[in-house]
Amino acid sequence: MATRSMSEHEASATSEGSSSLLASMREMMEEKRGDIIEIFKTIVAYVVKREDMGTLAPLENKITLFASVISNVEEAANDHEQRLASVQGSVDQLQGKVDFLSKKCEKEGRSGLNNIRILGIAEGARGPHPTEFVAGLLQNLLRLGAKYFVA
């Protein structure tokens, strides 16, 4: 049996075949690596989306509930604002009446200070013309003549 040694030509051919095979394998691995990365990204995105949906659903329900509550509060605030405006109008009107009546009472009080009360004469006996009544009364009591009569 003779051993045969590899010739340079055979070694070169084997080396080229190995390099070509190795390059082909590297290229195939890169393609598969890219495919695997894309599949992994898709799976991760799906899982994250599911978790987000599970987490977000209760939050969305709470947000909807809070939006409803806020809407009710806004309606109540608007209603109270309208009522307050109505009450403010009534208060302003009543304040005007109070001011008018206060001034009237003050005038009545001041004019009452100028009144003279004559004892023994009944209230209301003066008639529609109090000045003439008092002048006539004084003339009769003091027995004055007509020259002192004030009309």
Automatic annotation (TrEMBL):
Keywords: Coiled coil. This is Uncharacterized protein. Residues 1-11 have a biased composition (Basic and acidic residues). The keyword Coiled coil applies. Residues 12-21 have a biased composition (Polar residues). Residues 70-97 form a coiled coil. It comes from Crenichthys baileyi. Residues 1-21 are annotated as: Disordered.
